[in-house]
Specification:
The chain has about 400 residues and is an alpha/beta fold. It is built from 11 helices and 15 strands. The strands form 2 sheets. Strands 7, 8, 9, 10, 11, 12, 13, 14 and 15 form a 9-stranded mixed sheet that branches. Strands 2-3-1-4-5-6 form a 6-stranded mixed sheet, sandwiched between helices. Helix 2 (about 40-60) crosses helix 10 and helix 5 packs parallel to helix 6 (about 170-185). The chain is globular and about 65 Å long. The chain binds P-hydroxybenzoic acid. P-hydroxybenzoic acid (PHB) binds near residues 103, 104, 128 and 226.
């Protein structure tokens, strides 16, 4: 009899715990933010976390009457770790959204979790075109490499840059950057003398830059992921490529605002195509850069920060529209959002779930003693060319 009473009591207390858990769950709206916070891509994690926290500080920590809980996890930029953390966040923490994803392989590894659990997954950093096709639950607020690559090939061809060698990191975004730049330059009557690919992690650029020097192109077109640009710039100068009259052009990942100011004179004059510069001339961006710096010891936001900030905007507005409900309804409320970002106007294409925004041609210049990517031409409302097939 005693035993039975004990059993009943423990079942009841178990039930109480469960319903308490369920209550807590309905009172909070959880966002699982998975980022590389350590290792070579830690700057991406730091920028995005800082931007997400700034968004919350500016827009309140409740949405649709629920408390927003941001759960930040370090995946050390290892795809199996990203996937395991995502699984835990969905099953144990019952997050409404998965967000972050500092590199393409990390987003691709996690896509099946989003599909199986019907959890919207907001890609704030990774930029290979195909990512949004890996799950119908993926929405992207970063950018795509083809957007930046096509714009650069058009600019090069109309600025006496006819012979180019491409030099890219050997994985998804690098291969996109190479393909879309090359095809477009050829279309414009240019020539690609060679297509060089360097390892994604700890690359030694020296032998590749030597090869570029020997080929004597008008320019070398470069993509390396954010966090890797500084050693490339240094070696470009050390190998004397600038003195040999070879121009350095590329996507904005190589003149990343996070480290641009520390690159020194070699960066001065470099022309790139990208969707965000910390010196973008709009009142909204000025406010964003100032608030970001104030909250982070003077740190300058880069394009990763903007992907995180806009990702939080998309999540907040969707949660407001669904009154905090998740799943398919939350995903649907993310599609088609149109708003002004610190980067300029942008929207989430309702069909592709991918970002549409302006691409700017920029030149590194000194402004009040600091190096900035100064935008001088705008290509408006650029859709991902990778989706046009
Ligand atoms: C990516 O892995 O998709 C990626 C990472 C960093 C970048 C761009 C793309 O700067």
């Amino acid at each position: 009899m005693n035993k039975r009473r004990l059993l009943v009591a423990s079942v009841l207390s178990g039930l109480a715990l469960t319903s308490m858990g369920a209550m807590a769950q309905t009172d909070t709206f959880k966002i699982g933010l998975i980022l590389p916070m350590t290792g070579p891509f830690a700057s991406t994690g730091k920028q995005i976390e800082a931007a997400a926290r700034l968004y919350m500080a500016q827009n309140g920590s409740t949405v649709a009457g629920k408390k927003v809980e941001l759960i930040v996890k370090d995946d050390t930029s290892a795809p199996d770790v990203t996937k395991r953390i995502a699984q835990e966040l969905v099953v144990n923490d019952k997050v409404s959204v998965l967000a972050g994803f500092g590199l393409t392989p990390l987003a691709l590894a996690t896509a099946p979790i989003a599909t199986q659990s019907k959890t919207p997954l907001v890609v704030m950093a990774a930029a290979t075109s195909s990512i949004t096709e890996a799950s119908p639950f993926i929405v992207r607020t970063s950018f795509t490499l083809p957007q930046a690559a096509v714009a650069m090939a058009d600019w090069a061809a109309s600025n006496q840059i006819k012979k180019v060698v491409t030099l890219v990191s050997d994985y998804g975004p690098g291969i996109d950057a190479e393909k879309y730049f090359k095809d477009r330059l050829l279309l414009n009557g240019g020539q690609v003398l060679d297509t060089l690919r360097v390892p994604m992690r700890n690359p030694d650029f020296a032998p590749f830059l030597q090869k570029v020097r020997d080929l004597k192109p008008d320019a070398v077109y470069v993509f390396v992921p954010s966090g890797i640009g500084a050693p490339l710039m240094k070696q470009f100068a050390e190998r004397g490529l600038d003195k040999a009259g070879i121009k350095l052009i590329g996507t904005g990942d190589i003149t990343d605002d996070d480290i641009l100011n520390g690159m020194g004179d070699v960066a001065n004059g470099v022309v790139t195509a990208h969707h965000y510069s910390a010196s973008h001339n709009s009142p909204l961006n000025k406010k964003f850069v100032e608030a970001f710096g104030k909250a982070n010891n003077g740190l300058r936001p880069n394009f990763m920060a903007v992907g995180g900030y806009d990702g939080m905007r998309v999540i907040y507005e969707a949660a407001k529209a669904t009154k905090g409900a998740g799943g398919q309804a939350l995903l649907d409320a993310m599609k088609g959002q149109i708003f002004e970002s610190p980067r300029g106007p942008m929207f989430i294409d309702a069909q592709t779930r991918d970002v549409v925004h302006n691409i700017y041609i920029r030149k590194v210049e000194k402004v009040n003693g600091q190096l900035y990517n100064q935008e001088f031409a705008t290509i408006k409302d650029v859709k991902d060319p990778g989706k046009a097939k």
